[in-house]
Amino acid sequence: MISPPLATPTRQVPTTATQYADIGALQPQRVLDWYAGAARDLPWRHSGVSAWAVMVSEVMLQQTPVVRVLPMWTAWMARWPSPAALADDSPAEAVRAWGKLGYPRRAMRLHAAAQQVVTRFAGNVPSAVEDLESLPGIGAYTARAVAAFAFSARTPVVDTNVGRVLARAVHGRAQAGPSVAAADRAKMELLLPAEPARAAVFSVAVMELGALVCTAAAPDCPACPIRPDCAWQLAGAPAHAGPRRRSQRFEGTDRQVRGLLLDVLRTTSEPVSIGDLDGAWADGAQRNRALDSLLLDGLVGQLTDGRFVLAGERTDTSPAIMEL
Question: pTM for the full model?
Answer without folding.
Answer: 0.84
